[in-house]
Design goal:
This protein has one domain: Alpha-Beta Complex (Nucleoside Triphosphate Pyrophosphohydrolase), CATH 3.90.79.10. 24% of the residues lie in helices and 31% in strands. The protein is built from 5 helices and 9 strands. The strands form 3 sheets. A 4-stranded mixed sheet has the order 6-3-8-7, sandwiched between helices. The protein has a 3-stranded antiparallel sheet with strand order 5-4-9.
């Protein structure tokens, strides 16, 4: 059981620190039930389990949106990712977070509601979060947030596959993508 003192910490955060370090998140247990709240930086520093939404975005030509995160990101700075998305805020649903994060990171408005595919628990010695994976087609012109994304392109899936071994990917995004490929091969998605 998580100590309530850790969940409700109000310790100050560095104003010049990573983006969104003070955003309050729900902390969840092994079954994805809310057990408290904590600022994002505290949750990550203390490896408290939170929630994330991952959205695989395809354009009209079925290419996948790939981007490199900025160096100021709190987790996995300057890594590549084949998903947009992020944390689920306090009281927010996975579906709400998926749409909000996709529109924010792509710099679009009026995106179709992302289609839920599956959930999985991402846990390493450093990180822990329940992850909901979605997909959506974006035919709108994208204008990604410069504060979040350093570089972006829509890549054919074959090109993405070639880059998996040569680019430094976010470990959680790579885990989600490999899970997606396995489920696709099994006919589950």
């Amino acid at each position: 059981m998580t100590d309530d003192r850790l969940l409700n910490s109000q310790e100050p955060l560095d104003a010049e620190g990573p983006l969104n370090a003070d955003e309050v998140l729900d902390v969840v247990d092994e079954q994805d039930r809310v057990v408290g709240q904590a600022p994002r930086a505290v949750a990550y520093a203390r490896r408290l389990r939170t929630r994330c939404a991952f959205v695989l975005v395809r354009d009209a030509e079925d290419r996948v949106f790939v981007h490199r995160r900025t160096p100021r990101k709190l987790v996995f700075p300057s890594h590549y990712d084949m998903f947009v998305g992020g944390v689920v805020g306090t009281g927010e649903t996975y579906d709400e977070a998926a749409l909000r994060e996709a529109e924010e990171e792509l710099g679009v408005s009026g995106l179709s509601r992302p289609e839920p595919l599956f959930r999985f628990l991402y846990e390493t010695p450093e990180h822990a979060w329940w992850s909901a994976v979605y997909q959506v087609r974006c035919t709108l012109p994208v204008a990604p947030q410069e504060a979040e994304i350093d570089w972006h392109a829509f890549l054919p899936e074959e090109e993405l596959a070639r880059r998996l071994e040569t680019w430094q990917w976010t470990p959680d995004g790579l885990a989600a993508y490999r899970e997606l490929l396995a489920r696709r091969a099994a006919g589950e998605v």
